[in-house]
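Key result, reporting period 2: structure in, sequence out.
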C-alpha cells in the first residue's frame, strides 16, 4: 500500500516492521511496487497460498487472499486483525494507533 510506504518512518519509530504479503507472483509484486512507488518495505509472495490459508484470509472463489492487516507481537502472536471489503484500504493512522494502544 502506497500509504504505508509514505509513513514507513512512523512505523519504524514504534519499532514495527511493515510487510506486504499476497498471492501474486514476485514478478507481479515488482511491477506493482514500481508502478505505485513502494520501495520502503518488502512484498512477499504467497504463491502456494500457505500464509493466506494459515491466517484465514484465503478466498477460494478467486484463488487469492482477501485484504487484511495483521499486527503481531515479537513472539509472533496475532494481537490485532482488520479485514477489508472490496475497494477498502487500510488506514495507516488507525494501524499506528492500534500498535501504540497495544504497547508493542
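The corresponding designed sequence is given below.
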Amino acid at each position: 500500500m502506497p500509504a504505508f510506504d509514505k509513513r514507513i518512518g512512523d512505523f519504524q519509530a514504534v519499532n514495527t516492521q511493515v510487510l506486504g504479503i499476497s498471492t501474486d507472483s514476485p514478478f507481479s509484486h515488482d511491477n506493482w511496487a514500481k508502478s505505485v512507488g513502494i520501495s520502503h518495505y518488502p512484498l512477499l509472495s504467497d504463491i502456494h497460498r500457505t500464509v493466506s490459508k494459515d491466517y484465514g484470509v484465503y478466498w477460494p472463489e478467486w484463488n487469492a487472499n482477501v485484504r487484511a492487516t495483521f499486527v503481531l507481537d515479537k513472539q509472533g502472536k496475532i494481537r490485532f486483525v482488520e479485514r477489508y471489503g472490496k475497494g477498502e484500504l487500510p488506514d495507516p493512522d488507525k494501524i499506528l494507533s492500534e500498535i501504540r494502544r497495544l504497547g508493542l
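The radius of gyration is 14 Å. The chain has a mean pLDDT of 92. This case is discussed further under Risks and Mitigation.
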